[in-house]
Design brief:
about 425 residues, alpha/beta, Immunoglobulin-like, Rossmann fold, 3 domains, four-stranded antiparallel beta sheet, 11 helices, 20 strands, about 30% strand
Length: about 425
């Protein structure tokens, strides 16, 4: 375009024609040299290194390896064609690579939907120091990576559940000496031991206080029950409540298996689906992971009566039921309360539902007009109603967890460890 303008100017001022023509020939020569530099040699080599599977809701590293085979420093523009779930068309990375040098570039992706993620071409645009011509290279066509429930959280919380760092994340430090009939050993009495467990015969023989120590209950069935109805469709930070529950189920199942319990799960809405019977096998975690990956729903209305009937028929041994659902109002709870009470008669039921963090943000903002006062009042009403739901469940002997979505996993582990420590299951 610059030369077009110059030639037009030369038409108006003929004396400039020779100068413009000379400049054009110089530019044309530079373009030819640039073409030779870029296309005579092999150029740029690149590859995209993808993980075997993505972790839902977490930052997953994607690595790109670059190699410059040119004898000059190349300016590069990387355009990676991301999966359609991101709808991102402006992803660009600019970098510079010295001659015959290599470089690794890492960026992160945070997927928010389970399923298959298809990557397109990895496009690399190279420029020589002249910068008049750009050469495009294409690599790594049509790669697919499945997006599984958050196994990165599984590793993180697995270490926390069996370390001394639990208190840093709000977990309670609870003494875990069971009161079951499964005898473990006789040991010296120390302050804090239950005096009801004093072994008087051993005390008389040793001439010092001795107590019986019992093991925690093991091989207890732990079921994660996931409501996949419309109440679980609400998104927080891009992730639906259903996916928060799925991620928590994966973690708590792993912790339960490590605690020598049997882990299982199932989902429900109009009917009960995705059932994994509670067992303690080496392959149980893979079975649960694959089942959670394939959980699908149209977010229809949940039928708690079908849930109760299925639990009554299929779970004959007393079990811990971790029910992930959501109640926004006290009326919504009252409609399902008879079924929850019926399940709680034969099993230890823990109802897990969610705080609306957006409402908390509204209550923390200072109101300046009538409309904002109205919004703040309504938000406080809904927050208070959630607390009433907790009290209502407690009144009927049903344990509950009211948690923010981002704290769901840690609060669920905390509740499970508390139940185990208290010998409730």
């Amino acid at each position: 375009m610059a030369f077009v303008a110059l030639f037009i100017l030369a038409y108006l001022f003929p004396g400039l024609l020779s100068i413009v023509s000379a400049l054009f020939l110089v530019a044309l020569g530079l373009v030819v040299i640039d073409l030779i530099l870029l296309f005579k040699q092999k150029g740029i080599s690149a590859s995209r290194i993808l993980p075997k599977k993505l972790s839902n809701g977490d930052d997953n590293p994607i690595e790109i390896k670059l190699q410059n085979n040119y004898n000059f420093t190349a300016d590069l523009l990387l355009i990676d064609e991301m999966p359609f779930q991101y709808q991102k068309r402006d992803f660009e990375i600019y970098t510079q690579l010295n001659k015959l040098d290599e470089k690794k570039i890492t960026y992160t992706l945070r997927p928010l939907e389970r399923g298959e993620y298809y990557f397109g071409n990895l496009n690399v645009y190279a420029n020589s120091p002249i910068g008049l011509v750009t050469r495009r290279f294409q690599f790594a066509k049509d790669a697919m990576v499945p997006n599984y429930p958050s196994f990165l959280q599984l590793r993180k919380y697995m270490l926390l559940a069996f370390s001394n760092k639990l208190f840093e994340y709000g977990l309670k430090k609870i003494r875990r000496i069971g009161h079951t009939m499964e005898f473990e050993q006789i040991k010296d009495y120390v302050n804090g031991d239950d005096i009801r467990n004093i072994n008087w015969k051993a005390t008389a023989k040793r001439n010092q206080l001795m107590v019986n120590q019992f093991q925690d209950e093991r091989s207890q069935p732990i079921y994660s029950v996931i409501d996949k109805g419309r109440a679980m469709k609400m998104p927080f930070e891009g992730l639906s409540l259903l996916d928060y529950a799925i991620n928590a189920t994966l973690v708590i199942s792993n912790v339960a298996l490590k605690k020598q319990d049997k882990a299982g799960m199932f989902t429900f809405s109009r009917k009960v689906e995705n059932k994994v019977v509670a067992e303690r096998r080496p392959s149980q975690m893979n079975k649960i992971l694959e089942t959670l990956y394939n959980v699908d729903t149209d977010f229809s209305e949940s039928d708690f009566s079908r849930l109760y009937i299925d639990v009554k028929r299929s779970i004959t041994q007393r079990a811990l039921l971790l029910l992930y659902t959501n109640f926004e109002t006290l009326d919504a709870l009252h409609r399902q309360l008879p079924y929850l009470q019926a399940m709680a008669k034969n099993h230890l039921l823990v109802v897990i539902f969610f705080e609306n963090t957006e409402l908390h943000k509204l209550t923390n903002v200072e109101a300046h007009n009538t409309f904002e006062i109205f919004q703040k009042t309504i938000a406080e009403k809904f927050i208070y109603e959630k607390k009433l739901i907790v009290n209502e469940l407690q009144k009927h002997g049903i344990q509950s967890i009211l948690t923010a979505p981002e704290h769901l996993t840690i609060n669920t582990i905390n509740k499970y460890l508390e139940i185990k420590a208290r010998g409730l299951i």
